[in-house]
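QUALITY CONTROL LOG
STEP: pairwise intake check
CHECKER ROLE: data steward
CRITERIA: each record must contain a sequence immediately followed by its structure tokens, with no blank fields

ENTRY 1 OF 2
RESULT FIELD BELOW
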Amino acid sequence: YLDERFAEDVPPGHICIVARTGGELDQIDQKLQSKGLATHRLSRDESDQGATDKVRLATMHRVKGLGFDEIILASVNDGLVPLSQALANKGDAVEQRQADTEERALLYVAVTRAKKQALILSYGKQSGYL
């Protein structure tokens, strides 16, 4: 998919790959770099300035308040979206619903960071939110 976008003259820096966890991003980053693609990981401690020649990578939490021409929302799988740990061990039904609402809102925020296009990907069992 990325090769197609680059062939259509979409600059790498206009694309942000977003995942629910840092661990998922690590795997994606390794895969992209093994294919020779330059990446820039958006951390909470730095601004999103520069790096327009690199595909950006970020967690769902990090993209809040940002915008990108294209978002690739990766690994939208059962157990990751919603994150199992975020829903586990809630004291009662109210806390469970609140946690579920927060996870849904996080997915919504991530998808709506796309100004032009969003692509949602999953492997294995996809998220029940889709």
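ENTRY 2 OF 2
RESULT FIELD BELOW
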Amino acid sequence: MAGSANLLFMDNESHIRLRAVVRDVIGQLEPLPHQVTTDIRAIVQKLHGRNDIDLVADFGRPVAAIVAAAVLAVEQELTAELLDQISGTAANLGVWIGDSAPAGSAMHKVVRFFLKATAIHDGGLDRLRRARKAGEITEDELLVTPVMLVHAAYENSTNFLAAAALQLSQSPSLAEQFVSGSRQAGAVREMVNQICPTRHVMRRATKPLDVAGTHIQEGECVAISIGPPNALAFGTGSHSCPGIKVALTEAEFALREIAPLLAASWRTVSVEEKNHFVFHGLSHALIRRDSSSGD
């Protein structure tokens, strides 16, 4: 939308300028740093021997939190309370469908956290602050971009990893393919398009047009479906997700780590989906090991 400081709602030269800075921030995680993969492996190791696993609370969230912390790279911890606030900023997008209660409080708390945070040298927040000093981004963009990045890294990854792990637990043969590596890379991309943790994007019409019998005026905002059956989980064109490589690498590594555990015999106890127009995910996904199976 015109005048927005959020990359997701920008077009033309402003979008190109800010996207280049965002790509520089994300690029520090290509490939995933050793400490990130070590921490992900440690999370999965803690699940071995467990008879009950909530694939959201015990796998999706902690893995996503590690990557989210690595993206911005600050000395302060991303606490559980802050992570809840980060998830809560998703309510801001409810205004697309007439929600009168956007996540102002959550947004302000996350903005304040990164405004006061101590940036680690050459990490994501440090790069954003240097870009501001160099005049590459505006003050408003410096405030908004960390929130956009940390939300994408945490919420989208949580939603996908939990749903994908649930699929592996329900299909031992698919889990075995991850263990063997026979279908891993292609399977992750297929699963992302199938699950599609982001179901809609917002775009602004740059000229009047008619779509499926509906007239859209120049400047009007439109929600576009990128979820099933369109299979455009990462968007397309100049507005495609700038973190595709990191997202796929993170998912491939995390799912490969947990696949041997999920290849055993598990049954689904309870699953609850989140209710959000844009973001598709699970509130919890509890699985239980069959009594006859071993670790």
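INTAKE CHECK: passed for both entries
DESCRIPTIVE NOTE, ENTRY 2: The mean pLDDT is 90.
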